[in-house]
Write a structure and sequence with these properties.
Elements lengths: L2 H11 L1 H13 L6 H29 L3 H25 L6 H29 L2 E2 L2 H24 L10 H25 L23 H4 L5 H36 L4 H11 L1 H12 L3 H26 L13 H18 L3 E2 L1 H19 L2
Antiparallel strand pairs: 1-2
């Protein structure tokens, strides 16, 4: 970010996470009236916007692709904590919570974030460009993880129902963690150049001004400012997840009173938790950095599965009740459609407005079928 923009943003992005953290501490464990839910919602929005700013500060300091990993991993680690906490207190009714949340995260990232980013980038540059090698490898990792952890449990026979047996769950957890580790190593070390933004010829901005965005020339933040942003980012993300959990009872009551499926709660919470990554990806697409947007989207999906499943597998030793991971027929069809369309989008290394619209159509179908299965 430019120095002037950083100076302006610092005035509110510093206190927004603090206010959200204070609100979380005050409201935690208490029933919230309608006015309280509205205030918590405002604090949640402020924490989300602050998280995006601080993630961009860190990304500008460490460079790509390390910067895109910061937000993805931080959000996912806290998301895992939220899932385990809700499952610990939910009993049998939370058997599908991990599955619903992880699948929602995959659909949000691979269709919602990717589609919106492609739409924004194509409207500005007509054709969005990225590295097919890096994005294709990331997509293959997402598809493998999703199939192993969310599809196979529906067809295994060692345990009755769409669940893994103990050894199968242990294998899926270890395989997911190892595959996530390999992906991070490839992205950050061995083939780092595959995940860097593709430079335009002449580095011209849309409209022919003939110069790069101001952000490209801004001085990187100091080490002190970077560490401060890292602390505020973590505080903001904790506040996002904590405040989302506080207002989840209101969401659950609304879902129940409307007669909607319980899976809607997981979808709504996943949308709130992934909002920082969505905003960061869209802002990167507006700057003609589509590769960064794809890094955020696919990296978030990989982290969501690769870290959540091992954590849930470990927590299942202490958690009571079943752990349902297998998807139903409708969700499996959406997952297969997502995989096929994503492959056709990524392989050429170039995408237009049409690809963005197709991904958003799939995402819209997922949201609609979640409310009306």
């Amino acid at each position: 970010m430019s120095s002037s923009a950083m100076g302006t943003a610092r005035q509110w992005t510093t206190w927004a996470p603090v206010v959200a953290g204070v609100a979380l501490g005050v409201a935690w464990g208490r029933g919230l009236p309608g006015f309280g839910v509205a205030l918590v919602g405002l604090c949640l929005l402020g924490a989300v916007l602050a998280a995006v700013h601080h993630a961009e500060v860190i990304a500008h300091r460490v460079g790509e692709p390390f910067g895109s990993l910061v937000l993805a991993v931080a959000v996912t680690v806290i998301e895992v904590g939220l899932i385990v906490t809700l499952m610990a207190g939910g009993g049998g009714k939370s058997a599908t919570y991990a599955r619903d949340t992880v699948f929602a995260a995959v659909m949000i990232t691979c269709n919602g974030i990717v589609g919106l980013s492609l739409l924004v980038a194509a409207l500005r540059t007509r054709v969005a460009v990225f590295h097919a090698e890096g994005s294709g490898g990331a997509l293959a990792t997402v598809c493998t993880l999703a199939t192993t952890t969310l599809v196979l449990p529906t067809f295994t026979t060692s345990h009755q129902g769409p669940e893994f047996s103990g050894p199968q769950l242990a294998f899926a957890a270890v395989a997911s963690l190892c595959l996530y580790g390999v992906f991070v190593g490839v992205q950050t070390v061995r083939h780092r150049d595959y995940f860097l933004p593709v430079p335009r010829p002449g580095s011209e901005r849309p409209g022919g001004e003939g110069k790069e965005p101001e952000e490209e020339h801004a001085e990187p933040p100091t080490a002190r400012a970077t560490w401060a942003s890292l602390g505020l980012l973590l505080l903001a993300l904790v506040a996002v997840v904590g405040l989302a959990k506080l207002i989840s009872p209101a969401i659950e009551d609304g879902v129940e009173s409307a007669g909607l499926p319980k899976a809607v709660v997981g979808v709504v919470i996943a949308l709130m938790v992934l909002l920082p990554e969505t905003l960061a990806a869209v802002r990167a697409a507006r700057r003609d950095r589509m590769q960064t947007s794809l890094n955020l989207a696919y990296g978030s999906a990989i982290a969501s599965i690769g870290l959540t499943i091992p954590a849930i597998a470990l927590a299942s030793v202490w958690l009571s009740g079943p752990l349902v991971l297998g998807l139903g027929a409708v969700h499996m069809v959406l997952l297969v459609l997502t995989a096929v369309v994503s492959a056709l989008t990524v392989v050429p290394g170039r995408a237009t407005l049409l690809q963005g619209g197709v991904h958003l159509a799939i995402f819209a179908a997922f949201v609609f079928l979640s409310f009306s299965p």
